[in-house]
Design goal:
The protein has 708 residues and is of the alpha+beta class. The chain is built from 23 helices and 20 strands. It has an eight-stranded mixed β-sheet with strand order 13-7-6-10-11-12-1-18, with helices on both faces. Strands 14-20-19-17-15-16 form a six-stranded mixed β-sheet. Strands 2-3 form a two-stranded antiparallel sheet. This is Carnitine O-palmitoyltransferase 1, muscle isoform. Belongs to the carnitine/choline acetyltransferase family. Keywords: Acyltransferase, Fatty acid metabolism, Lipid metabolism, Membrane, Mitochondrion, Mitochondrion outer membrane, Transferase, Transmembrane, Transmembrane helix, Transport.
Length: 708
Amino acid sequence: MAEAHQAVAFQFTVTPDGIDLQLSREVLKHIYLSGVTSWKKRAIRFKNGVLTGVYPASPSSWLIVVIAIMSTMYARIDPSRGMIDRIKTSLPVSLETLLFLMFLKEVSSAHQACIYLIKNKEKTYLESVRPLLDDEQYKQMETVANDFKKDPAPKFQKHLKLKSWWATNYVSDWWEEYIYLRGRDPIMVNSNFYTMDLLYVIPTHRQAARAGNVVHAMLQYRRKLERGELTPLRALGIVPMCSFQYERMFNTTRIPGIETDFVQHLKDRKHLVVYHRGRFFKVWLYYGGRHLWPSELELQFQRILDDKSEPQPGELKLPSLTAGNRVPWARARLKYFTEGINQASLEAIETAAFFLTLDDEAHGYDPENIRSLDLYAKSLLHGKCYDRWFDKSFTLIVYKNGKIGVNTEHSWADSPIIGHMWEYVLATDCFQLGYTAEGHCKGDINKSLATPTRLQWDIPKACQEIIESSYMIAKGIANDVDFHGCLFNEFGKGLIKKCRTSPDAFIQLALQLAHYRDKGEFCLTYESSMTRMFREGRTETVRSCTCESTAFVRAMEDESTTNEQRLALFKKAADKHQNMYRLAMTGAGIDRHLFCLYIVSKVMGIDSPFLKQVLSEPWRLSTSQTPQQQLNLIDIQKFPKYVGAGGGFGPVADDGYGVSYIIVGENLITFHISSKFSSPETDSFRFGQNIRQAMLDIRALFNLKEKM
């Protein structure tokens, strides 16, 4: 996804000097710090586990219960009235059973603790680049890879294995730091991603009412999250997936720094900050110890919409600081926002539960306007470059026609995490909270609530110039985004199942065919796969351009090849893709391992031509599937109009495409395609047409004409 851009663009700044022993100590220092961070997280989780384990009571009341039980034991009184003895009789637990259960727990913990390091990653890498290199280039790369395998790979691997024993996850902390937080380029478009509203439905056209329901639903979700009431997701319905990323969904902000940013996560925050027409407002979310009801939130948001005050000097475009380069923002923050009213107002934003923009534009899907999804996506991705706070964990955007969306900062989590919350919010908004016949939130209106508070600023001219400079940089990036939203409804998952093929493999091969037709060549292709079966796991790369897929594509373009031959090549390529996806999910991918070896090489000060080549290769086709129905709260067979439109991200390479897709039910696949206007080689609309045709051409191989 968006991390593919950062994986190529990041720069390593740690350059220790000294003898080899000192360099090794530098690596050990990094490993030690990773371990300390991991153990701190474990301590926090243990504490939270104790607190949630006795909820809604307090730990002190739990102590009273323990004392009471000990008293009954001392007095030899059976408080269960014989029930415990009956359970023992009906469910005998042997020592062997207890040992087996303990063994399972330990194995599970070990499985979570480390993504196992496997050998021959270089061989797997060479196999992945073979279709992209001619014979001479391949031999050269083979030589470089073999040299690396002999030396210094064993040195790097030793340190990495040590880290895997000490830290919770040998990849994730370095991935967050070096791919995201150390990046000095703008995060708007380059890193942040977006999620859309329901595709066909707008529950109410009243902006304040929609905001009221959605914010209340988010607060409900946050409460469930904090109490541990959300059921963990399971891969294939069996293996529980790590929920670590959910912990920083709310009350979280990315704080800019000169060399690196850091993620600030706080405990329960009781307010949010709203941006409307260049003004910032602080809105309290609690009243009398409870969440505000949707009707009360609607009242507060309507008060903001009705406020006719003008922005203060420098206030209108202030959020563009979060859209521009990181260093100017970090320096401006230190110079102009560390005291007085500026510090107080910035603190209100950075400590808020999340950020809300009441947008003055109207967006959404319009069947009569072929470019409506394009404008909607661009608005969610970058807006006006000054009306989203791109550093917040997420910005909720509510348009004046009632449509909504989310812009998410990427360092703290990946898209399935925000998608999980989004599914809950949309289902709660439409099917639990609902609206009156006039489109207002249900419930009484408490007019005694204190009105939202305007945040105050004193922004000097010098700071206003920095704000304007950041805005101009962000505007240049935004204007270069060529986006196209493509609704493919000729067929969907239902028909693909008849082909006895994975829907993801089917789509990935269609993308390979479309790209070849678009550019006349193959390219390194990135598909994001989750690794959340491991503790604190995030993503791994599936290299979708393979020898098998290129053979299939060439066969499709060769008129002398029969459909039977093409179909055989398709099935072979699809099987290859499915196997690679399984390997990536189970920790046997190559890219995160090579990335960590590269980090070790830089810390040790040992130059590796092989790793340098691997980490500098551009992903000219970056793809990601948006998960759907993680919670199954909406029966889309019964309510086919209540389907999500998915989400997307900005272009990864200057001359490449970013493609996000969501498989919606049985009959619809939505593609979100991005590229850059500045590249003469790309055209997002053209690529969308190529994808559509490629999907149809592959279907024709199976002689399945009916629409499912």
